[in-house]
Specification:
two-stranded antiparallel sheet, single chain, 197 residues, Dna Topoisomerase Vi A Subunit, Chain: A, domain 2, binds zinc ion, Helicase, Ruva Protein, domain 3, 45% helix
Length: 197
């Protein structure tokens, strides 16, 4: 139906998150229809990103410089280290604009099922970093899933004797959330984490 070049484009696009084969075909069609305004600029942007974007050797963030802009910024509070699953988690924290510390990106979560162990996530390096630098508090911001919390508990255990404060994000009622729309686990967590009014 289509030439091998377009077929290859569809195949690659369908590997992107949120794009199934049908939406990949629509995206490929849109790209070739808008050759000058979309296809060529996008291919140039991707080629440039492929050359210039690298992984920060300190925290695991993506940037064009290493160490990344966050690690290199002297205004960031070196006493606070926030542990996130991936760069999407780091971006989410940065969007709030209210965290001024630094990060450690794990690049995954512990999973016996998928064969992901502590060495795959660089946890020994994280413990070294937390103990051998100015870090005073490690904030565990892994997801509120079984694997996220297993990973957080494992890191907390490893840091237990290292003389740093270990904290985790609170789990509970989201801003604007109505109790009736929440699952039982969220309500239970919110009740346990209640605070003085
Ligand atoms: Zn960094």
């Amino acid at each position: 139906m289509v030439g091998p070049e377009i077929e290859r484009l569809i195949q690659l696009l369908s590997r992107l998150p949120g794009l199934g084969p049908r939406s990949a075909r629509r995206a490929a069609l849109r790209l070739v229809e808008r050759r000058d305004t979309l296809l060529i600029p996008l291919s140039e942007a991707m080629a440039e990103a492929a050359v210039r974007v690298k992984t920060c050797s300190v925290c695991g963030n993506f940037d064009t410089i290493d160490p990344c802009a966050i690690c290199a910024d002297p205004r960031r509070d070196a006493a606070l280290l926030c542990v996130v699953e991936d760069v999407a988690g780091l971006w989410a924290m940065e969007r709030t604009g209210c965290f001024r510390g630094r990060y450690a990106v794990l690049g995954g979560l512990l999973s016996a099922l998928d064969g992901v162990g502590p060495e795959d996530l660089g946890i020994a390096r994280l413990v070294d970093r937390a103990t051998s630098s100015e870090v005073a508090e490690v904030i565990l911001a892994t997801p509120a899933t079984v694997e996220g919390q297993t990973t957080a508990h494992y890191i907390a255990d490893r840091l237990a004797l290292c003389g740093v404060t270990v904290s985790g994000l609170a789990h509970g009622v989201p801003v604007g959330g109505e109790l009736d729309h929440l699952d039982d686990g969220t309500i239970t967590a919110a009740l346990r984490a209640r605070r003085a009014f």
